[in-house]
Amino acid sequence: MKSSNIRTKLLTEINLIPEENLEELYNFIHYFRVGIEASKGTPEQIMQFAGCWNDMSDEMFNDLNEEIITRRQQAFLRRRSDETSFG
C-alpha cells in the first residue's frame, strides 16, 4: 500500500476517535515518532556494556540466567491467559 493511502486511512481513523481519547492517541503516536529513535543506543553506547559481566562468578551468572528464564515463563503464562480470556 502506498504511503499516501496509509496516511489518508490514518487521518480518517483519527477523525473518528472520540475527543476524550485524543490525548492518549497523541501520546501513542508521539512515542513512535520520537521515543523509539531516542531509545535506540548508538553502537558506542551499546558497546560500553560489552564484557561488563566478565567478573561475575559462574554461580552468580547461572542464578541470574535461571531468574531470567523463570520470569520470562511467568510473563508468557500471564500473557497467554490474558489473551484467551474474554472478560
Work out the helicity level. Answer: over 70%
Number of strands: 0
Overall mean confidence score, pLDDT: 83
Q: Biggest β-sheet: count, sense, barrel?
A: none
Task: Output the structural class.
Answer: mainly alpha
* Strand proportion: under 5%
Number of helices: 4
Shape: elongated
Order of helices and strands: HHHH
Could you tell me how far the N terminus lies from the C terminus, measured between alpha carbons in angstroms? 35 Å
Low-confidence stretches: none
Rg, rounded, reads 21 Å
Give structural notes.
This protein is mainly alpha-helical and 87 residues long. It contains four helices and no strands. It has helices spanning 3-15, 22-39, 43-47, 58-84. The chain is elongated and about 55 Å long. The mean pLDDT is 83.
Topology:
Layout: H1 3-15, H2 22-39, H3 43-47, H4 58-84
Short description:
This protein has 87 residues and is mainly α. The chain contains 4 helices and no strands. It has helices at 3-15, 22-39, 43-47, 58-84.
Features:
single chain, mainly alpha
